[in-house]
Amino acid sequence: MLSKFSRFLTIAALTTLTCVITHPSSAQPETSEMGEEIEIVTVPLTINQLVNEAFWENSGDFFEQASMGGQLNTIFGWRKFPQGSYPENNITEDGLLLYAILSDYFRQLQEREPIIRTRDLANPFDTSLRENPQYQ
């Protein structure tokens, strides 16, 4: 099980991938070899891209698992020494990371705008069957 601190570091690393933090005064335009300015555009990750990256964060993809190092890691779990990086542990860590990202995402969606409450539409079904003695 991941400690709270390592979960925090993983979430912080993945959310840092979504934006580039630069002080405006230290931002300098890039120049090419010819001396002309190059505009660098950084696009933040969408929630779909963030979830896809988090999904494979600990367990890796097929090619990593199929390599010799990946197969030895599956057998011995040597990448993360105290708990072992066995496939079950990696899947658990990926699940915890996804849970943290998605619960934060839905919390942000909920807090973004106030809840709008509206009246129910008028309908002829204003009583229940239990209240009506004809149906019993």
What does this structure look like?
With 136 residues, the chain is an all-alpha fold. The chain has a domain at 44-111. It has five helices and two strands; from the N terminus they run αββαααα. β1 and β2 form a beta hairpin. The mean pLDDT is 75.
In a few lines, what is going on in this structure?
The chain is mostly helical and 136 residues long. It is built from five helices and two strands, in the order αββαααα.
What letter string, H or E per element, gives the SSE order? HEEHHHH
Nearest-angstrom radius of gyration?
25 Å
Largest sheet: 2 strands, antiparallel
- Per DSSP E runs of 2 or more residues, the count of β-strands stands at 2
- Beta-strand content: under 5%
- How are the strands of the biggest sheet laid out side by side? 1-2
pLDDT < 50 stretches = none
Mean pLDDT: 75
Number of helices: 5
List keywords for this structure.
136 residues; mainly alpha; two-stranded antiparallel ribbon; 46% helix; signal; Porin
Helix and strand topology:
Layout: H1 4-16, E1 30-31, E2 37-38, H2 47-55, H3 62-66, H4 68-76, H5 87-112
Antiparallel strand pairs: 1-2
Helix pairs in contact: 2-5
